[in-house]
Protein: Alanine--glyoxylate aminotransferase family protein
Amino acid sequence: MSAPKLFSPGPIMVKDNVRQALTHYDICHRGAEFEELFARATAKINKLFKADDTYRSMIISGSGTSSNETVLSSIFNEGEQVLLIRNGVFGERLLEIIEKHNIPLVDCEFPWAEEPDLAKVEEMIKANPAVKVIAMVFHETSTGMVNPVKAVGELAKKYDKWFFVDCVSAAAGENIDIVDMNITFATSVGGKCLGAYPGSAYVCGKIDALETLTPEMGKTVYLNLAKHYISAKTKNQTPNTPNVNLFWALDVALDNALADGGVEARVARYKECAGILRQGMKDMGLKFLLDDESKMSNTVTSVFLPEGRDLKGFLKDMEDKGYVVYSGKGKYEEMGMFQVANMGEIYPDDCKEFLNVLKSCL
Structure:
């Protein structure tokens, strides 16, 4: 069977040198070679986020959710609150983590696909002085919307709050400057816009915040941010056995993202590809979930099938022709929405060929 073309928001198609990195000879995760690899890769993660020397990065063996849970389950003392801004499935994933660990919550909920109202956010900050952390998703993949992270970061700075941002579907796909955006903790994973594999998650955190954490604050053993930070800072190590093979692939993917024009060049390619896809789908008369293209991410487009067309049948037709796209989530699936992603090894010519296949399936 020929490999399918993954126009889905993770896992993604990877570059050949990333795939080949998985065949690296076996090493001991407690040896010098691993520690050099860890130091190299975490320094590159800092560059990916445009972090300065006031930040430190760590790698977590797990999905993007594991990096989010590592942070959110580890940074609160008793009685400290989190203000969660949410407007989609992955905001609700953060809510699930927060509730599972019994963290006091100020829930700033907005309808799916609706941009958060900054005035409401600020009012909730002012009304809840026990809030320690403001949390939100950068790119809400379930809708394809990019949230106003910089503006919320300015509020976090104004009211002296930590700012946690789930960048799982944004890192290497959107322009992120963790310093300029006043982000305290950013998370992501290799198997999205960066072009590596699921299972290689990472956290970039502000050192002065990390230094206030203790292992006892963490509510889990494995996903304990203080333990990860101490191991990274003192030994370029992880506190538990990591998935070493994925570290090699992550390191190469970071090289790819930072080379030849840097992250900006990759973001520009993703934006160009999204533009080709969107124009083509417009020309076919398809309707988007988001009316304002300025709110759309560079890598995910949420679009509705023509009325009366069966979504499951359409997805199977696409897959039979070698192309994989996602169905929408929640109520959007019932409305015949599907999602087209252009993360990873997808280029303008691939998008044009995708449109030809899409047209034939419609």
